[in-house]
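## retry 2 of 3
previous attempt timed out at serialization; input unchanged, resubmitting
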Amino acid sequence: MNLTLFMLGIGQIICWGAIYYPLAVLAQPIQAETGWSGTIVYGGFSLSLVAAALLAPTIGRLGDRFGARVMLTFGPLIGAAGLLMVAAAHHPAVYFAGWAVLAVANRLTLYDTAFLALVERAGAAARRPISVLTLYGGLASTVFWPLAHWMNGVFGWRLTLVLCAALLAFVCVPLNRLSVGPPPARTVKAPAGTPGAASPAPLAGRDRLLAFALFSLSLALSGIVVSALSMHFITLMEALGLPAGTAVTIAALMGVAQVTGRIGDIAIGRRFHPLDIGVFAAALLPLAFLCFAGGRLTAPLALAFTLTYGVSNGLVTIVRGAVPLMLFGAEGYGAMLGRISMSILFANAAAPVAVAALRDLAGPFVTLFVLGLLAAASFAAMAILWLRFRPRGDNQP
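## retry succeeded, writing output
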């Protein structure tokens, strides 16, 4: 399992870094060269998330049927094709088409499919491997934001995307192929005594629907914040007076904070139910925005925000994989993640364009205030879920 996690983890760093994160650094160079508006440039990313949301339930069901190995083999190739289309685009139609192709790669390669691969192998005991895998994924922004910033300065944004496509095709495909075996004939059950093996029966009926709604709402609201900051964090910090180099350096530490939170979950998380981790992570998100309450920004405040936000986001990623496994069971896990992801991705899709418009209309501080309110609402939904469905007494893991 350790070698599997290592290879799958390196693949996740590259997939996240190549498919999801480059636009945060490359958006302004794309605008400068093409003359396209921010609405067009960020609109490609939003289109990709809408398409990914529409595809999520279907791809989740296909994952349950055919196994994660097929998805993780073809997904990076499709991602490489999408990046090459974006890199070659001289017209918005080609640019949008490239992002539509990247939507397919998004669903086939990122966490949901990687989590499915681990659940196929470990069943109800997959919580700890999920936590370990997210350690790798959390490094994607730390690696790829500075890397994309450097490559853009040396090669330009188009060749930067070509190089990212090469990493997907020639590194991710063999790594994923080697790390993920064919799906077992039936879901693997955790052996007796395995941490996380004992869990209550999956929720059913109205409780299942209510838990699904609350969990999806909390993740959708926090996802708006994460999606917005993934695209605009550096530009927001620059608008508030930080030098570009300082903003990029502080932003890169977000991945370090994510990994720190995930290490904490690996170290002590087994003592707590995934919902305990979920409500703690959700509480950190609005607390992070208090760094802007004074009406001015300094580098130490930006750093404090980045570290708190990063820990929260790092833990939420684990929660996204672990809570459905505990509440809804391993059977149909891929389809369940697909349904949850659909609501998250629809919410995320509007965030980059909406936040760009809000920033232009009302300024960076108002934008951050609105994002802080959404973070507080996400915590409220997660707190209700925790109060209603957190197992007590003998049902604790």
